[in-house]
Design a protein that fits this description.
Elements lengths: L2 H27 L22 E4 L2 E5 L15 E5 L2 E4 L5 H20 L11 E4 L5 E6 L12 H8 L2 E3 L6 E3 L5 E7 L1 H5 L25 E9 L5 E9 L7 E7 L6 H5 L6 H6 L16 H18 L15 H8 L62 E7 L29 E5 L15 E5 L7 E2 L3 E3 L4 H15 L7 H10 L13
Parallel strand pairs: 13-16
Antiparallel strand pairs: 1-4, 2-3, 4-17, 5-6, 7-8, 9-12, 10-11, 13-14, 14-15
């Protein structure tokens, strides 16, 4: 066979192989008949978070609808719409928040048990994976803290977190050491076009030349503990360099201010609440108070991480727990009903039989007519049509929204929310956040679902608490099932989960008589 024939044969073989390849491709491409049908992902059937109910998407006319000359209310209603979200059916209780405090306590003790200064027990830190490869060190929560029979080093590590009451000799938690560190990623600032890394994508106006030397300044929060053990919060302003510039770091002391009962009410005997309200099991199911907006956000961050850890791996994608926006709160409180002034259906604070619908101050100097003198156990009164308890009264609740006199009129009408992350150096007036719902100390007007007020974000009060929400990302089918489940839950007492109860019991163990602390 000549060279020419050999080359011809090679061309024929190559043509046969190419034809066969194209035929194979044709088969895979023609599976949809050549039509674009889309690439579909898996629909998430999100399980109902414990203690939460699903608030379905909807709309409401937000704000006061009628003029009230007695309270100087001016009609300012605005139609808004919010997407679906999960919401705690009850306010965060002392027992729930105490689990957070004990988690921080136990984390610090485990760190010290692994510290060479306290004996250096390596069993309290996990530094390798199951294959023996080094990993980022993390605490070993399966290794119990030796509360009952510690050795000398272990006892020093445990006692380092406690102080002794000079009056009673009882050991108490040293609340000043109970700091929780967490990070957040500011998606809003990251998404803004002016903050994009590529200068060509900051402005699409083709009449303007791209400024490749433009310096984009960002502002981020960071925190650290100095050599004196003091938490330092710093707001950094610097040129944009990477996506990590949108990671904010916070260190927050988590212990509630138990002295709010004295500081909020001068010339009143409230010492018993200082000593017992947060620490005594008598008040386990009462709403936590003395918690600032900053502490409430730290709780949400911890609750998110706590759930993520239960999945056993990082990178699990679910919406974080957070505080509700002001719009979400009002929509949920009014159960999406424009004609509903309170979280209950009537315009009066009690039923036809004279039973009160919530915990507030019924008369001048009369706190007890509704059945309680201060707060009441969460869920003591009937839920609204969304299955939510105590949206009017008991404790006012933090929202994520920054305070503005113009309120909802300053925001969009879809998922409205006004955010202002005040820097440390900002004037104090810029550090106000919206609180909603009124409290046990307020007259009936202030527990209305359309009345708004504010508090400073670092302030702690005996009448302010909070509840968490989580954006809903599930399917319509799951939403229907969740709604039915929430309706059933609204007609029964609080569900009990044995595993969580057991975990809570284990978390609360400590030296006898050493679980409580009075924050001064």
């Amino acid at each position: 066979m000549g060279i020419k024939n050999k080359n011809r044969m090679k061309q024929i073989i190559l043509l046969i192989l190419l034809t066969a390849t194209l035929a194979g491709c044709s088969k895979s491409l023609s599976g949809t008949g050549g039509e674009v049908t889309g690439v579909r992902g898996r629909v998430i059937d999100e399980p109902t978070p414990f203690g939460m109910v699903l608030v379905k998407r909807g709309s409401v006319e937000m704000g006061a609808h009628q003029k009230d000359s007695l309270w100087d209310d001016i009609p300012e209603a605005k139609g808004i719409s919010v997407d679906a979200f999960w919401m705690d059916e009850k306010e965060v209780s002392n027992a729930m928040y105490r689990q957070f405090v004990y988690y921080v306590r136990d984390s610090i003790i485990r760190e010290r048990l692994a510290d060479p200064a306290y004996g250096g027990n390596e069993d309290y830190k996990i530094e390798t994976d199951k294959y023996g490869e080094p990993i980022t060190p993390r605490l070993n929560w399966s290794k119990p803290i030796p509360w009952r029979k510690p050795n000398e080093d272990e006892e020093r590590a445990i006692n380092s977190l406690y102080v002794t009451d000079p009056r009673t000799g009882v050991k108490m938690l040293d609340f000043e050491q109970l700091n929780y560190r967490y990070e957040t990623f500011d998606y809003r600032q990251y998404a803004l076009r002016r903050n994009r890394m590529n200068p060509e994508r900051r402005n699409y106006n083709t009449d303007l030349a791209t400024d490749y030397d433009e310096e984009v300044l960002i502002s981020k929060d960071t925190a650290f503990i100095d050599d004196d053990g003091t938490v330092q919060r710093v707001t950094i302003n610097r040129p944009l360099s990477s996506p990590y510039d949108f990671v904010n770091t916070y260190i927050v002391n988590v212990y509630p201010d138990t002295t709010v009962w004295v500081n909020d009410f001068a010339n009143a005997y409230t010492d018993q609440y200082v000593r017992y309200y947060f620490s005594s099991p008598i008040y386990d199911d009462y709403p936590v108070v003395g918690v600032s907006w900053e502490q409430a956000n730290a709780f949400c961050a911890w609750r998110t991480e706590y759930l993520r850890q239960s999945y056993g791996m990082k990178g699990v994608n679910f919406e974080p727990f957070r505080l509700p926006t002001e719009a979400e709160w009002e929509y949920a409180a009014r159960a999406g009903n424009n004609d509903q002034t309170y979280s209950w259906k009537t315009d009066v604070p009690h039923t036809d039989k004279g039973c009160y619908n919530g915990n507030f101050k019924p008369g001048f100097g009369d706190y007890t007519r509704d059945g309680y003198i201060i707060t009441s156990p969460v869920g003591s009164y009937e839920a609204n049509d969304f299955g939510l308890y105590d949206m009017s009264g008991n404790v006012a609740e933090w929202t994520s929204t920054a305070w503005s006199e113009s309120g909802v009129h300053k925001t969009a009408d879809i998922n409205p929310d006004y955010q202002y992350n005040a820097a440390k150096e900002d004037p104090y007036m810029l550090k106000r956040k919206v609180i909603r719902g009124g409290s046990w100390k307020d007259a009936s007007h202030f527990v209305r679902a359309d009345v708004r007020t504010w508090e400073y974000q670092n302030e702690q009060r005996s009448f302010v608490g909070f509840r968490c929400v989580r954006t809903y990302i599930g399917s319509p089918k799951a939403a229907k099932a969740a709604k039915n489940g929430a309706a059933a839950a609204g007609k029964t007492k609080t569900r009990k989960v044995k595993a969580q109860k057991s975990q809570s019991t284990r978390s609360s163990r400590g030296p006898r008589g050493a679980g409580a602390s009075v924050r001064r």
